[in-house]
Write a structure and sequence with these properties.
98 residues; mainly alpha; disordered N terminus; 70% helix
């Protein structure tokens, strides 16, 4: 999936609109907990720790939002990357899309 420029922001914003529509399927408290504990990947010291952080993120999202698709999970992660100003990671994603 190619994510770049304005579509990246659109995808992140769309994620925020998904939650009210599926309120019965989403544990907003758990998603808020994921948000509070989110650390930018560029702040994690090594590759193994970054991979473990991604694995934990996926498990936590699955627990909080069982019906989330892969696209939903990616959109939520991109929204967190933007919210937490993970500029290096966002730049790397944009570079991969070119």
């Amino acid at each position: 999936m190619k994510i770049s420029g304005p579509s990246l922001l659109s995808l992140a914003l769309a994620t925020l609109l998904i939650f009210p529509a599926h309120a019965g399927e989403v544990d907003k408290d758990k998603l808020a907990e994921i948000d509070r504990g989110f650390v930018c990947p560029e702040s994690i010291p090594d590759s193994a720790a970054r991979q473990e952080a991604i694995r934990q993120f996926i498990l936590q999202v699955r627990d909080a939002w069982p019906s989330a698709s892969v696209d939903d999970t990616i959109a939520f992660r991109v929204a967190l990357l933007n919210k937490h100003k993970c500029t290096k990671t966002l730049e790397a994603i944009q570079q991969q899309g070119r």
